[in-house]
Amino acid sequence: MTTKDKYTHVPDPYSWAVPNSTESKFTWEYDDGRARLLSLYQKGKDKQWDAESRIDWSIDVDPTNPIGIPDEFHPLFGSPVWESANEKRRAEFRQHNQAWNLSQFMHGEQGAMICAAKIVEVVPDMDAKFYAATQTMDEARHVEAFAKFLQEKVGMVYPINTNLSALLKDTLSDSRWDMPYLGMQVLIEGLALAAFGTMRDIAAQGSLAKQLLAYVMQDEARHVAFGRISLKDYYAALTDKERDEREEFVVEACYLMRDRFRGEEVFETLGLNVKECADYVDNSPLMIQFRSHLFSRIVPIVKDIGLWGPKVQKAFIEMGVHDMANFDIDAVMKADEDQAEDLDRAHSEMFHRIVEVDQAIAAGAS
Q1: What is the value of pTM for the model shown?
Q2: Looking at the predicted structure, is the pLDDT value of residue 360 above 60?
Q3: In the predicted model, is pLDDT for residue 346 greater than 80?
Q4: Residue 259 phi, psi (nearest 5)
Q5: What local confidence, expressed as pLDDT, does residue 351 receive?
Q6: 306: left (phi over 0), alpha (psi -120 to 50) or beta
């Protein structure tokens, strides 16, 4: 059985070609490099992991609530549609909503894999090529893990959301070498980190989804740091016109990403009134809070790399996220990495306890 058999409706066409006109840049300088990027590259090598062995795929998953999210966090919770639904119908709401979210994560990770490979091709410096190569492997692992979870545990996959595909197209088709960094490393990855973090934190304790999201986030925290380091110095030397162009891209991309989480495809697939459901989601205090949280990584990084002109600030004020510019992004990223380490320690301790119990049983039997 292939992924095509799991789609709610099969994408047509079944593959997507994004044209672009970029130069492949070689450099003959192999020794010099920025210490911060080379350190990140070393960390990227040290932190490689195998999705088959690090994640405990034997854990049972309820396909109608695969992440283990309380109903209060469902976007339609409390709506007339939710209140009038019986438990069987609500189970459909849960499964489809979570399958849709996880599917967008998977498609976004494929986009990140392709962007990272493109960065290897177009970036002029060897230290950045080195790190982007490790990220390409990270993203391949993420695609593998999300695909396995969706196909084997959830049994349902949604096609790519139109807002996400539009942003990926804009990012990949731009001929300027820094745009895959800005579009993917800062914006798409920054938003993904916040979305992953929200779901990781509310997922059921000990669940397979909590493991998956924590381990993916450990990698993504490095990827966002890569974008910050690479772009900060470069953007300091931009002309006003060049900076304005990138700030316009940031504004447009942020509106696309905010609207990406409305989920009209789910409502349509479930046979619901799409407009009524979308209106409820847009005005739901929970979704307003969630959408604001999505920018908790993006806003301080956009400010840090120097894209903080009037257009960007105006857009962030309208979205209600301008105050996030003062967040300690380094502390947030470190917390994302620490959660994965804590999980590893807990699993190791549990493994040793199981071994000790087995040894004690064996000794008693003899």
Answers
A1: 0.87
A2: no
A3: no
A4: -80, -15
A5: 47
A6: left
Query: Which H or E run contains 279?
Result: helix 274-283
Cis peptide before 80 (omega within 30 of 0): no
| Mean pLDDT value of segment 352-361 | 53
What does the pLDDT read at residue 267?
97
139-172 pLDDT per residue, tens = 999 999 999 999 999 999 999 999 889 889 988 8
- What is the token pair recorded at 86? 């019986």
Inter-CA distances, 263 with 70, 142, 198, 281, 299, Å = 18, 22, 17, 9, 23
Sequential DSSP letters for 87-145: HHHHHHHHHHHHHHHHHHHHHHHHHHHHHHHHHHHH-S-HHHHHHHHHHHHHHHHHHHH
We report the CATH number of the domain holding residue 70 as 1.10.620.20
Mean pLDDT, all residues of the chain: 89
- Whether 41 is in a domain gets the answer yes
- Residue 165 domain flag: yes
366 vs 209, residue with greater confidence: 209
The residue length of the chain stands at: 366
Residue 20 lies inside a defined structural domain of this protein: no
Q: And the tokens for 234?
A: 């470069």
Mean pLDDT of all residues in 271-298: 90
- The yes-or-no verdict on residue 213 having pLDDT over 50 is yes
Q: What is the dihedral of CA 310, 312, 318, 322, to 10 degrees?
A: -100
Radius of gyration of the chain (CA): 21
φ and ψ at residue 365, rounded to 5 degrees: -65, -30
323 burial level (CB within 10 Å; 0-12, 13-18, 19+): exposed
Residue 336 near residue 193, CB atoms below 8 Å: yes
Count of domains forming the chain? 1
Domain span at 307: 35-359
Whether 84 maps to a domain, the answer reads: yes
